[in-house]
Amino acid sequence: MTSMEEKVVESIKTRFPEDIIEAKVQRKNRVSISVRSDKIYDVGLFLRDELGFNHITSVSGVDYIDTKEFEVIYNVWAIDGKVLVSLRTKIPRDNPTLKSLIKVWEGAFYHERETWEMFGIKFEGHPNLSLLLLPEDWDGPPPLRKDFLLPDTPQEKLEEKIKRAGGQ
Amino acid sequence: MSIMKLSMGPQHPITGHFRFILDVDGDLVLKLEPDIGYTHRGIEKLAEKRTYLQNLPLIERVNSYCDSVGTMLGYLEAIEELMGLEVPERAKYLRVIAAELNRIASHLYAACLFSVATGLETMLMWPINDRELILDLLEKLTGQRITYTYPTIGGVRFDMSEGFKEEALKRLDYLEKRTEDYYKMLLWNHTFQIRAKNVGILKPSDAIRLGIVGPNLRASGVKADVRKDEPYEVYDRFDFSIPTGKNGDSYDRLEVRFKEVEQSINILRQAIKDIPKGPIKKWAPPIVPKGEVYTRVEAARGEFGYYIVADGTMKPYRLKMSPPSFRNLIALPYLCRNVPLADVPVIYISLDLIPMDVDR
Amino acid sequence: MIPILSFSEIIELILKVLIFPGLAFPLLFAMIVIWFERKFLARIMLRIGPLHVGPLNRTGLFQPIADFLKLIQKEIIVPDNAYKILYNAAPIIASIVASMSVAFIPYAPKPDGGYWMIYYTPWSLLVILAIFTARPFIMVGAGWASNSKYCTLGAIRAALQLLAYEVPIALSLVSIVIMSRTFDLAKIVEAQSSIWFIILQPIGFIVILIAMMAELSRRPFDIPLAEQEVVFGWPTEYTGTQFALVMVSEYFDLCAVTSLITVLFLGGWSGPAIPILNDVSPILSGVFWFLLKMAILTVIIIMGRGIYPRLRIDQLLDAGWTLLIPLAIIQIIITLFTAQWWIPLLGGV
Predict the structure, then answer these.
(1) Domain residue limits at C258
(2) Which of A168, B57, B174, B245 has its CA 20 to 30 A from that of B261?
(3) Do the domain assignments include residue C3?
(4) Which residues of chain C does B13 touch, with a Cβ-Cβ cutoff of 8 Å?
(5) Shortest CA distance to B157 belongs to which of B77, B101, B88, B104?
(6) pLDDT digits (tens, 9 = 90+) for B166-180
(7) What CATH number is attached to the domain comprising A57?
(8) ipTM entry
(9) What is the count of structural domains for chain C?
């Protein structure tokens, strides 16, 4: 008997053989699926309708500045199956657009809006991409990008000083 | 009558650090748009600058005055999973005890706010009074009343003191008796019932679709609790049930919280009885190995998710929090369509949104 | 023609106008009730309440005075958009109107005939009813003149609530008038010398008590002032002295309403004579019973705030139109059919 996690990986691989970059079981209750960015909507719809992943838990972006890519991760929980799938996709850093998944999981509304304001990732089809957490007069770059630098903490200043002095 | 734009908050008796932009027609609210971010502290960004251990007090501030341990447990679970660290048994029990005490305090606080929203100030003072007993108990356990940073990487910081068990059991007995008074004063109060029943009905299918979590989801009749679905710490060893509601209205959301307090008392009694002897902390290296992890815990307001990307240094590469109040926020504009103005505070408070938790 | 008063009559008039039941009495009543309300609710809520101000230790007896002194030192802020004349006049008119009705209420009989009241008129019940009807206009006027959204919402609520609850009040007064066959409050009291109307007309009493609580915006009917919804309703923008006037006028109203219900249903001053007070003056004995009944009513009205949540405006209006008005009409019908047996038992008429 195969477990739920393996079943999810199996079926997603047979349904989308071309578009899945990687699909694996991370551990018990965790499945990670990496897809091409243009197919994320179809995969999301398949996950929701066929496999019962109905409960969106979070949408997060990660800024991989070294490879000049953003990764967007939709974490979705299946209430009946008791599995969490991480649906992830990479998009180029200079043109960060992605099809919005709020038609699939309506609960992603505020999550996507937050990801937009924190990373500058445009979600096509999102009805209201406006500032949510940041102040109304914010005109700086998206703050969670890695090239948005915070002022140094005292500890970091100390480390810098030691480094400059040639110490450890 | 024409439509009037009404700005409710951030300086308003009920909204806290929120602002709602209401479209009001007479006494009817047509549309509600939440304007959040008044307590945004950028914790996710700040966490990238600090080491894993330094992040503990920072993360506690996400929701410090109600549910400190519930907030921190997910973060610790994530780090310990990345490190492959097995926490000592006694520490797990102590974490559960602190988390459940927090849950009781948080739910009592929710009941206070709810009765304020309907204008019953007596039930503001009574649970606040009894919440004090829980806070005293936590002070005895952790040394602080509100922000104690009690659990730490690899265990907890302090062992329980002499006489804690007896004191805790005594206070839990009192609280169990006291809950009856709450039922009489609030839940069985006819005037309260006609204010709270059939207000803000959230159907189970909608609740799942919108991604609602915690007591709000369970009040809609969906049996989903991380403590049962994915038992963390030692929750699989306790015998407790998940209370669910029937109609998914504001009244059910409050009733589920009261029933959860009873279940928490139940868990606490078992934990205090079963707690084994042994060490309370294991040494943990400051560097977390490379990897990424998503953990979920059941905080008082619902499922708290942490997504951590570690790059093999002392600091997290990316720390994403998915706090319960932020996920419940979407229910507010959904439920506040074509409702009387007087129902807006009731619906808002029944969802138990805490501005600090929403904004991070 | 101005009547020529003797010296003792002038003294009596000054006593009436300035001390009791005139100016000093509603103010003292307001002060004591504010203090009592805070202390009493604090006890219900397991708090302590006002503590330090005042002569007796740990009572905070003078806390209302301290609050009042604080308020009159504050700056009076008038919003830019406000309609200034009405905005500034409304609190003054409100407190004047609220304290006006005590002039027509008989507090005790005088031994030489006549009653201890400021102005005697055989139509006093109608006059008081007319004064009560003026209140919603002040609230709507003040709310509109403030030109603020919360004030407007509160004023609309106040108008809906107060106008709806005028009707059951008027209807339950009808059965009183049928029974006593007069509009004169003093005669109504005398009619109750043998049996109080609360016993003959319990439904009418309940209707008028509930309706008056709604008129006064006391919880569970404090919808026009609902803090959690419309901040403070129609007086939201008032500060300083104006706010103090609005607050005090609420308690003046409470004073008038409890006096009126005492007169109508609880037999006014009637009660066994108290020997010590009777020796000084028989008036004092009557006043004592009157104040005692007023105090009991006040406690009942205040208690609502400790134990009830607030109703919603639609529920309140439903209750008014579909419950209280039918009850009042039932009371009128009962009174019509039973009056022939009861009227011979009543005194005075």
Answers:
(1) 80-345
(2) B57
(3) no
(4) 227-228, 231
(5) B88
(6) 888 999 999 888 888
(7) 3.30.460.80
(8) 0.85
(9) 1
